[in-house]
Amino acid sequence: MPKTDYMTVGEAAKKMGVSVRTLQYYDKFGLLAPSAQSEGGRRLYAQRDLVRLHQILSLKSLGFSLEDIKDRLPALDTPAEVANALSAQAEDLRSRISRLSDCLAAVEGLRAEVLQMQAVDFKKYADIIVNLQMKNEYYFLIKHFDEETLDHIRTRFDAESGKAFIERFMYLCDRALAMQKEGVPPESEECQQLAKTFWEMVVEFTGGDMRLLPRLMAIGEAKGDDGWHKKQEQINAYLGPALEIMFERQGTNPFSGE
């Protein structure tokens, strides 16, 4: 290739609308190495290097990380390979959009609460954001707890164990709704076992501190138009009698301290 077909790093950067530092970083990262070197040791770029740079910049604009581009670029030779790469990236972008939508809803909800209550609860806000980042779909439950209950949760559970506990609890709730739909009576052995498991989870959550029971009951009995509140109303209507039967058979009443 004639010498005139080569460009210095400054010339290549200007032609492609990027900084010299960007080209130097891509070179160091192993993403785009210059094709040649001058007698004086200057690194020189060819037209084919600019084609590759254009591919890199295009993929980067679509949200691909530099690591992804480094791994994928050598294999993007056929339409099928390009289509597969774009499909994977589209799925990743959909996931990001979903998380951002959740974040937006949480921020807007918190903003409304701040304006309504004229108070700022930064600890609760932080808890919600952490759970959103963990992709915990039940993050919205946090806003139903008062500060003392939240402090108790922070003491008893870390992020992972808290998420695992909520997932177990939600599975149990779904099972209760399914049994209710099937017409399984509260006094049956199957429903009593479910009530026992439910109560064991309540004890696990409270750590045996029955002073938290009224707060939990208030959350479960709270009225609301959202799907979660309506679901809890159904669960309470089904499990409430089952728990009463279980306590009566055991001869205990945890709500009265006996």
Task: Describe the fold and architecture.
68% of the residues lie in helices and 3% in strands. It has 11 helices and 3 strands.
Radius of gyration: 29 Å
Q: What is the helix content?
A: 55-70%
Low-confidence runs of at least 5 consecutive residues: 132-140
Going by helix content, strand content and strand pairing, the class is mainly alpha
Characterize the overall form.
Answer: elongated
Overall mean pLDDT score?
A: 77
SSE sequence, one letter per element: EHHEEHHHHHHHHH
* Total count of helical runs of at least 4 residues: 11
- Order of strands, main sheet, comes to 1-3-2
DSSP strand tally: 3
Distance between the termini: 93 Å
Strand content: under 5%
What's the SSE blueprint?
Layout: E1 7-8, H1 9-16, H2 20-29, E2 36-37, E3 43-45, H3 47-61, H4 66-72, H5 79-117, H6 122-133, H7 147-156, H8 159-182, H9 189-206, H10 213-221, H11 227-250
Antiparallel strand pairs: 1-3, 2-3
Helix pairs in contact: 1-2, 5-6, 8-9, 8-11, 9-11
